[in-house]
Specification:
It is a single chain. The chain has 5 helices and 11 strands, in the order E-H-H-E-E-H-E-E-E-H-H-E-E-E-E-E. By secondary structure, the protein is of the alpha+beta class. It has one domain: Ribosomal Protein L22, Chain A (Alpha-Beta Complex), CATH 3.90.470. The strands form 4 sheets. The chain has a 4-stranded mixed beta sheet with strand order 4-5-1-11, covered by helices on one side. Strands 6-10-9 form a 3-stranded antiparallel beta sheet, with helices on one face. The longest helix is centred in the first third of the chain and has 22 residues. The chain starts with 6 loop residues before the first strand and ends in a 7-residue tail after the last strand. The model has no long low-confidence stretch (mean pLDDT 88). This is 4'-phosphopantetheinyl transferase superfamily protein.
């Protein structure tokens, strides 16, 4: 069990086939993943759901099947997207009354990541490294000052940092990302204009092929522990 209120546990894993994970997905998760036509996207979704429940369960030392994961969009009420939350089910009384950590998850081709913490609202994002950003990226994502980024990796780094913050405040892309202004992507992360409050923002690259970022609304120094998980078809 994690006992530090200002600790963030980050779990990451390589994606696994949704077919391999079928026995550890809940019925609702199997139904949701079955609607995704692209195999790579379907595998990433299935892997992120299993990893999220595994990570929350690890907070107190219970199996992933003791965790229920939900989403609810504050704008439209959808239960398919929106900020994720977790709750306990079928757990001993001493676990039942244990605070459930905040949780955030992200996925990209080949990699899934999950952050859990009691420190405050949390957001995590990850994107595969790419050779070139799409045409028009700056106009959609970057504020005028940020568009001076010297290379595409700095631009991508700015993007994942923004995504992490927007997830942490529970808004995601309901907010125009250009209204959140960060420091240069090739410098240590900092918020120059954005949500009020103390924020811990840091880069977090789980693999050489992916760029990630973590945002936590925490009033105090945050300790981040990173663990790699091997996903399988059993707990």
């Amino acid at each position: 069990m994690s006992d530090d209120a200002l600790t963030v546990e980050v779990h990451w894993a390589r994606t696994v086939s949704a077919d391999v994970l079928a026995d550890v997905l809940t019925r609702a998760e199997r139904e949701r993943t079955a609607t995704v036509q692209n195999a790579e996207s379907r595998n990433a979704l299935a892997s992120s759901l299993v990893l999220a429940r595994t990570a929350v369960g690890a907070w107190v030392g219970v199996d992933a099947d003791a965790v229920e994961l939900r989403r609810r969009c504050p704008r439209c009420g959808s239960r398919v997207h929106g900020r994720p939350s977790a709750s306990w089910r079928s757990v001993p009384d001493d676990v039942h009354w244990t605070p459930v950590p905040h949780v955030s998850l992200a996925r990209t081709a080949g990699t899934v990541v999950v952050a859990t913490t009691l420190a405050g609202e949390v957001g995590i994002d990850v994107e595969r490294r790419i050779e070139r950003m799409f045409v028009g990226f700056d106009d959609v994502v970057l504020a005028a000052a940020e568009a001076r980024a010297v290379d595409d990796e700095a631009r991508l780094r700015t993007w994942v940092r923004k995504e992490a913050v927007l997830k942490a405040i529970g808004r995601g892309l309901d907010v125009d990302p250009r209204t959140l202004v960060l420091g240069p992507g090739d410098e240590p992360p900092r918020i120059e204009r954005g949500p009020v409050g103390p924020w811990h923002l840091q880069d977090l690259d789980p693999t050489g092929g992916a760029i990630g970022a973590l945002a936590v609304g925490a009033d105090g120094p945050v300790s981040v522990r990173v663990t790699q998980v091997q996903l399988t078809g059993r707990y």
